[in-house]
Amino acid sequence: MEEHILLLAAATLFLYGLLARKIEQADITAPMLFTALGIACGPLGLNWISTELNDELVMIIAEVTLAVVLFTDASQIRLKHLTQFERYPIRLLAIGLPLTIVCGALTGLWLTGLGWLNAVILAIILTPTDAALAQSVMEKKAIDRNLRHSINVESGLNDGIALPLLLLALALSQLGSINQLNTSHWLEFISLQLILGAVVGVFIGRSGSYLINRAHYSHWISPLYQRLSSISIALVAFSAAELLQGNGFIAVFVAGLFMQTRHKIVIQRLKEFGEAEGELLTLSVFFIFGAVFVPLAWPYLSADIVLYALFSLTLVRMLPVWLSLLGTGLATKSKLFLAWFGPRGIASILYLLLVMQQTGTSDNYPLLQATAIVTIALSVFLHGASTSLWIWLFKARPDKTDPS
């Protein structure tokens, strides 16, 4: 049966690549297609794939993908990017992100009946955004450059910022279920995870960029291995941090931030890796999401869960973003654009997997899991299908008051 799945996935990827531009004009994105393909192959369709999550291959793909995504996203961010685009990313991250978590948690308490800590965990899972789900919009010159780059910068940083909050919330959730371990133990554990992960990330990022710069200057390294250095440094940072009892995902994110190479071509090679080999990993996770995760949510599907998902994709995201942009002088259309394009994608899927590994004994675990899955699934399709509308809106009514 594995041969059928491999053939179908490979053929889909090949055909989508051949017709990508045409398909995108119909508002069908690659994540939409691979999520739908996963659903078709899973228990809700042909039943070729089980929902068993103990498969070691699934875990390896998920962890490697998250490490690569965190590293490549962070490596593309420069300090000047935070202030270059009218400081919109700073507002989105410093004001919009925490307000989104608060609004998401309050909505979870109101609609789902989750305890306050599980509601916070759910909100954190669904806070990171994924600009790749609307990549066709991000490439259109009709959309103001400041707006497109602000969304990309926000997406590149908010997953790494949300991760420590998620780890802290998970540690607090374990205090009530592991009575033999006291509070000081868990505070020490989470501090060790965060601090050691960050220290390892700084060291690997700095030393890795120094060695790549030296090799590039000396003409020792080829373009191929400049691209492969992305996954190499990410995996070195992850493994080293885990061996030292730190958090590997914190390490790879920090390593990417401190990957300060002096050669633009090296950064371009890292970006190319993320857009090619990294995209293959990402699409694999969307396929797994459709085949394995979506069926897990099906038995728990309810009106309250769907309502939470719709709130999460609209008011829970849009109201905090709107508040964070007050006083910027942005036109209403531009604020709505930044507020709407907060799709939940790869980071949310992989953070959900981290939660599923550690909170399986919680009474509210199936409800938390199902709510997150439904929200992500709706986001994949709704945000992907909305790209043409925004492109038309900005082309038909160009806003001359927006900063250029």
TrEMBL record:
Chain segments annotated as transmembrane: 57-76, 88-110, 155-173, 185-205, 243-259, 280-299, 305-325, 337-356, 368-394
Pfam families according to UniProt: Na_H_Exchanger
Gene3D superfamilies: 1.20.1530.20
Main location: membrane
Cellular localisation: Cell membrane
Annotated membrane topology: Multi-pass membrane protein
InterPro entries: Cation/H_exchanger_TM, Na+/solute_symporter_sf
The organism's place on the tree of life at top rank: Bacteria
The keyword Transmembrane is assigned to this record: yes
Keywords associated with the record: Antiport, Cell membrane, Ion transport, Membrane, Transmembrane, Transmembrane helix, Transport
Domain Cation/H+ exchanger transmembrane: 11-390
PANTHER family associated with the record: CNH1P (PTHR32507:SF8), NA(+)/H(+) ANTIPORTER 1 (PTHR32507)
UniProt name for this protein: Cation:proton antiporter
Species whose genome carries this gene: Bacterioplanoides pacificum
